Amino acid sequence: MVYTLAMTTEPAPKIADDGIQDVPLTVARALLTRLIEQVREDDLVSALTVRGRRRAYLVTPDFYERAIEDGGLLEGLRRYLDELAAREQTASVVSNQRIIKEALDAAERRCP
Questions:
Q1: CA 65, CA 20: separation in Å to the nearest integer?
Q2: How many angstroms separate the CA atoms of 13 and 27, rounded?
Q3: To the nearest 5 percent, what fractions of the chain are helix, strand and coil?
Q4: What's the confidence (pLDDT) of residue 89?
Q5: What burial class does residue 14 get, using C-beta atoms within 10 Å of its C-beta: 0-12 exposed, 13-18 middle, 19+ buried?
Q6: pTM value?
Q7: pLDDT over 70 at 94, yes or no
Q8: Average of pLDDT values for 32-61?
Q9: Is-contact 104 81, C-beta < 8 A?
Q10: What is the per-residue pLDDT for 111?
């Protein structure tokens, strides 16, 4: 009997609700070149999965570098807010700090 990719018991790649293509690792091995081309040409991010759990992502170098920069920005803003919190401030400044902190918290939850 000849084994082919079509005979695998793993599900085929599918686009999840978050727009990321979930690809079982056993399938990804055979499709790696195609997956790399999809992320490069179509900006289609793929998540490599093992037993349905995401283990790694295929993204462009630009996306990765931007994510690192964004993470550094969030960290710097968080430190700045901590420094501000240590100072005595007016009610309006404290209110603005709270709004900024909530926005940072939301942004950090969205960052992988």
A1: 19
A2: 8
A3: 60, 15, 25
A4: 72
A5: exposed
A6: 0.64
A7: yes
A8: 94
A9: yes
A10: 62
